[in-house]
Amino acid sequence: TNPLNYNLLQYNGTIWQNVASLNGVPIGSTYASSGAFTTLNASGAVTLSNYTGYLYGNGSGALTASTTIPTTALSGTVTNAQIQYPYVTLGTTQVNLGATATSLAGLSTITVTQSPVGSYDLATKQYVDNAATGFQIHTAALYDYNDTNLAGTYANGGTTVTVTAISGGTTLTATNHGLSVGDVVVPQTTANGLTAGTAYFVYTVIDANDFTISYAYESSQVTTLTDGTGLSIALSANSGVGATLTSTTNTALIINGNTLSVGNRVLLIAQANGYENGIYALTQQGSGTQPWILTRATDGNKYIPSTPLGLAYGSYFLITGGNDGGESYVLTTSGTIIFGTTNIVFTQFAQVTPYTAGTGLTLTGQQFNIANTGVTAGSYGSASAVGSFTVNAQGQLTLASNTPIAISASQVTSGTFASSLLSGSYSGITGVGTL
Fold first, then answer.
1. Is 0.85 surpassed by the pTM of this model?
2. What is the pLDDT of residues 354-383, one digit of tens each?
3. 284 exposure class (CB count in 10 Å sphere: 0-12, 13-18, 19+)
């Protein structure tokens, strides 16, 4: 439907002149075209004007107009010379695409962030530690709250995804679902093969609007859903992400006499509602005008087994501060955790022997200190003074002083005095000698 400029145009063996348009629009003053062209020969220049996009074909059929060229319509080989940047740079070594390098200059460290899959994959230290212990060792918590319930209002996080269609028994359609592989979704109602309250896992993300699911983490894809359109099935997704526990009063959070700061990690293990337990970070400090707010930490707001990136059976936490510094706990809840529903249970793995400070000592956290006795630090005793000391029953100096040396003359019965030690006027003394 675009004007065609030409020098000479031949259609199905007939010479056409004064061509102004194609396919049903008059071509010249006498002739018109209808239907599809089977043969189009042109001598000279042929120009389509007022047309944007691409025309592509397979060499044997009709051309197709498109705003982009689909990859399925491409064939052949793209050489490195046709690519703007046909290489990757590792350290300072440039490696051309398709080539190999036996040594890499300028590369001193490699950071691995994913767990290994193949036999020769690199592994993080964290992965090796976990494999050796059977635990998933998380970043330590500064405090725990393990004796009583920490009063507060719990609120689920996450998002609500609305499924509007199911096709092929596998594919769920939800506009802009925002999901990732491994995310947990829980139907709020039973419909089309989905069961309310059951945890499903995102198996694949097809695009921004479509995804598939599995019954278990990294399990096989569900293929028995009932197809339908015009649906409205609400799924709760990642309910632990952004979940909070908020104080019911305006106050700061204090544990073991310590006022917490924003970012401090707290392990809750004794909540009256077991689903509230878990690892949190303080996100609002609290004061006389606002409540404190704990938010589930990023390494404890999703169910991800066998990794410290999520919470699951074997998640291990060390406590480093407060009265319980040195204690550690392991999560012993088996199976899928639905945050806000599943009771999360921690079992103590290691316990610190309690210590108390005896006489003359103080204990702060895990550090003993000698109590200050009030004696001034310094040296005591000299040629002209004698040190005087008082010691308590624990062997501590409680008093120290210097006493000047003063000897009465009557106590001197022998020895020699230097003339410099004599003063005053004495009759009958003509010299100094031995008494």
1. no
2. 678 887 788 887 788 887 777 888 888 887
3. middle
